[in-house]
Design goal:
Layout: H1 2-26, H2 34-39, H3 43-57, H4 59-73, H5 88-125, H6 127-133, H7 138-142, H8 144-161, H9 163-178
Helix pairs in contact: 1-3, 1-4, 1-9, 3-4, 4-5, 5-8, 5-9, 8-9
Length: 190
């Protein structure tokens, strides 16, 4: 029971960190996002504190989820030159190697599968919004049904490898990615 709680907490905290990182990279008007406006200059330290907490709950799980999201986030523009001076595809390869060395092949494989499934479900749910703003979205490229089915194809082996962690990831991704606290408009604490 205690291990399940720690795993769930690690997945949830890492999900918040990944969502924050994604919003920082994608959003032009950061103050339009309720939690950014609320935290202001405290956003970076709180995000780092949250990731350290996730790592304390379950290091291998949080490490894998973070690095898998980092690597998958760069797939859309593989030849882009990044601030490190490396191309995105090179950083992806280095990230995968790092994951293999730190958490092993099984957890690396699971992390990539579950984060791919989560990204595809997010694209499926954001289809109409992304269609309007012409944002990068797998559902726009593949089609909505195909995107959903591809997400299930990635989710099924992840579920077989780490069942509870996969369910936590799936459920928390839906709450974090599409929950009220992360939507524009009045923050829930006002």
């Amino acid at each position: 029971m205690c291990a399940a709680f720690f795993n769930a907490a690690a997945v949830f905290c890492t999900g918040l960190v990944v969502k924050t990182m994604d919003d920082l990279l994608d959003e032009e008007d950061l103050l339009s996002i309720p939690y950014f406006a609320r935290l202001g200059s405290g956003l970076a330290p709180y995000t780092l504190a949250l990731f350290s907490l996730a790592s304390a709950f379950n290091f291998r799980l949080s490490f894998g989820l973070f690095w898998a999201s980092y690597c998958l986030g760069m797939i859309k523009s593989p030849f882009e030159k990044l601030p490190t001076g490396l191309r995105a595809n090179t950083e992806v390869i280095l990230g995968i190697i790092l994951m293999l060395l730190v958490i092993g092949a099984r957890k690396t494989f699971w992390s990539v599968l579950i984060m791919a499934a989560v990204q595809l479900i997010d694209d499926f749910l954001d289809f109409k919004e992304d269609q309007i703003v012409k944002a990068a979205n797998a559902a726009l490229v593949l089609g909505r049904v195909e995107c959903f089915l591809t997400a299930l194809i990635f989710f099924y082996p992840a579920l077989n490898l780490l069942p509870w962690e996969s369910l936590f990831s799936w459920c928390f991704a839906l709450v974090i990615g599409n929950g009220r606290i992360f939507r524009r408009g009045a923050p829930p604490w006002s």
